[in-house]
Amino acid sequence: MSRIRVGRLQRIEADAPAGQVVDALRQDGAVIVHDLVSPEVVAAINAEVQPFVDVADPDMRHLNPGVQIFHAQTRHVSGLAGKSPTFATEVMIHPLLMALCDSILGPSCARYQLNLAHLLERLPGAGDQFWHQDEIVWNLVPEPKPELQLASVIALVDFTADNGATRVFPGSHQWEAGRYPTGAEAVAAEMPAGSAIVYLGSTFHGGGAHSGSQPRRGVHLSYTLGWLRTEENNYLAVPPEVACRLPRQCQEVLGYAVHDAIERGGGYLGMLELRDPIELFQEGWPGSAS
Questions:
Q1: What is the 3-state secondary structure (H, E, C) of 205-268?
Q2: Is residue 156 part of a domain?
Q3: pLDDT tens for residues 113-131?
Q4: Considering the domain boundaries, does residue 251 fall inside one?
Q5: In a domain? residue 138
Q6: What digits encode the pLDDT tens for the residues 185-243?
Q7: What total of structural domains would you count in the chain?
Q8: What's the rounded Cα separation, in Å, for the pair 95 and 53?
Q9: Residue-range definition of the domain harbouring residue 49
């Protein structure tokens, strides 16, 4: 069987048809994808990020007090695609995630893009995050709006209820405006390392309280419509001299490709010298690529 229930969440094997995952997302707003990446990929990412985790300060100053509270007792490694080549090539452009973006985001843009890719290592004693919808960062997009974001949390260690596995609220993507979840409605995304909870930007969720004894390490990875400003400045997080060494698909997802909506009656966004930066990469820009 490729599909079973975990509480009110569906669990689908990563080799199942992408349409099954899309159907679960549209029905429940979230789905667990089992074994999205192999143990070898998990081990490689953990090894590549470990030097950055070692120096990450859980008490770092964030951009505002609200974010500070939201990420208390957590070590962060941001700009992950520029620090872990394995993450960039094996996770960020994973065929299943790209297929989900094609279905969920593709109808509303000429090209989707990476929104945010960062590692979060939540420490023992970390409390519940407040329940939230990721799409709230674009709350000025008028209603009715399309799905603005596809997000995921990928486990780099086993996720359990005790170590603060992400809590999601199935069906909350279809709630009426103004409804806020209660803790009793939450479902913990318990899953082994290498699996992922994938959810819509309109789905309520949040990290759970960590009552275990070991850090809980995972990656938050999300994509958004190509015409929206991203949460993380990916051109600085993965600058041209790094991006030019990545495969073309990575460059495109990072936002270096032009968002060309002319055939849809729109315009173009993200050009450089009236060119597509992807073409400039192929011609040896920046100089360090030659």
A1: EECCCCCCCCCEEEEEEEEEECCCCCCCCHHHHCCHHHHCCCCHHHHHHCCCCCEECHHHCCCE
A2: yes
A3: 999 999 999 999 888 888 9
A4: no
A5: yes
A6: 999 999 999 999 999 999 999 998 899 999 999 999 999 999 999 999 999 999 999 99
A7: 1
A8: 27
A9: 3-232
